Amino acid sequence: MHELGVVFHCIKEVNEIAAENNVARVNSVTIQLGEVSTVIPELFDDCWNWAVKKETVLKDAKVHIERVDAITFCEDCKQEYPTVKYGKTCPYCSSLNTYLVQGNEFLIKEIEVVDNPPAGDGK
Amino acid sequence: MDEIRVIEIKKSIFEDNDRDADRLREDLRKKGVFLLNLMSSPGSGKTTTLIKTINALKGQLNIAVMEADIDSDVDAKKILEATGVQSIQLHTGGMCHLDAEMTRQGLDNLDLDDVDLAILENVGNLVCPAEFDTGSSKNCMILSVPEGHDKPLKYPLMFSICDLVLVNKIDVMPYFDFDLALCEKYIHMRNPKAQVIPICAKTGEGIDKFAAWLKDQVKKWKEN
Ligand SMILES: Nc1nc2c(ncn2[C@@H]2O[C@H](COP(=O)(O)OP(=O)(O)O)[C@@H](O)[C@H]2O)c(=O)[nH]1
Ligand SMILES: [Mg+2]
Ligand SMILES: [Zn+2]
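^ inputs. structure came back:
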């Protein structure tokens, strides 16, 4: 259910960007999704394909999802480790004094568009 | 052939909502209305806690409630019957969270003229509501004892955005391996600034402390 909510947010955002840039069509949208963001890529994909059908500029837009690995840093031994495997506890020194460096992002990275013909262009 | 162009954006999906939320917070500050966003898993005791707390604040604060937890008006009716305060049901259409725009629309349906404290009972879920700033003045969550003391480790984002964590259902502590001290430690690992108040919404234990916290927050909000 969460995925559908964020898809709507994402569509709204891309629609605004498309309007600002006077584009005719959006061909694709690239999303950067952290490994520990709360969104499941497969579900996001399904929700996206369902939701864009109702759109105009975005009607045929494909979504590309780029995964960002989750990495945690340990402040005690100054090493990085994969978050999903070890969680909050540092596998090197067992410290809990750790924080997420990357992996919770949910960004619209870029969109691929086709522009409207310039006004007054008689071709 | 149509020419294809790439527009680089690098923008968080939550940015728009964050902006709406800041705007709403500012509007509410001008009106002198403090908005509390109350979150928890389903069944942790949001509605029960609200009823006890609103009654404890009778005559001290003017309160209004928005219910978004489930898409039926059971909770809104319960609040109205048990406390007599203004209480409305927001129709979330099955959404897993409320965003700032939905919250604003909900507030538009309340008469806020004399209201000091508006409370939003958010959708019961520890994941999605944490991602969407509602425009609230403060965030509060309820963690109930049967859910276990390791919840802050499993839902770090939720705990990191809350100003106050109520640990509810402490009456059933003897039946669960719930370690309150460890729970507080986990909460503070995620959020050193979070306050923790153990309560029992069933008997009313600790509700006075929550009521005092609210009064204090509302006072500070209006002074600014
Ligand atoms: N034992 C016990 N049960 C409680 C307490 N607070 C709430 N409950 C019960 O938990 C259930 C869910 O409560 P409710 O307030 O509806 O939770 P909500 O879904 O978060 O609004 C109800 O059956 C309440 O009676 C408490 O402090 N102790
Ligand atoms: Mg409820
Ligand atoms: Zn370490």
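The pocket of guanosine-5'-diphosphate (ligand 1) is lined by residues B 40, 42-48, 69, 124, 168-169, 171-172, 200-202 (CB under 6 Å). The CA atoms of residues 4 and 47 of chain A lie 5 Å apart.
thumbs up if we can close this ticket
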